[in-house]
User: Fold this.
Amino acid sequence: MKPKLLISACLCGKNTKYNGGNNLIEQLKELEEQFELVLICPEVMGGLATPRVPSEIVGEKVLSKEGRDVTEAFQRGAIESLKIAKTHNITLALLKEASPSCGVHKIYDGTFCGHKVDGTGMTTRILMDNNIKVFCENEIVEILELAKTI
Assistant:
């Protein structure tokens, strides 16, 4: 039986990205060979539409580019993602870097100018706080290596 991997739906080619597109990764087939993939999109699960106005973390809130406070939707999506992980006994996640939900090492700085800063998204934080190891799409080699030891 393959271990389960919580993964951002956009990385699997699902059109859940804020602009209606996706972030399909080349290594999807390799991941599917090693893991049972459990797809999530915290933003959609939190009640936001696709496409949607881009959002960034500003202080303790998540604001849309129009200035709308969408923190609650991001929190709901993070909690739902954690529930799914716990339901499936998942201990590993592969999430989309720079996303206000899924950023692992970097997030956009809140100015909507495309600048990134060190930080984590809301979903990543809640998963990490619950002992789930989170990787970004730049760390697929590491997660595939880890799969060999599970």
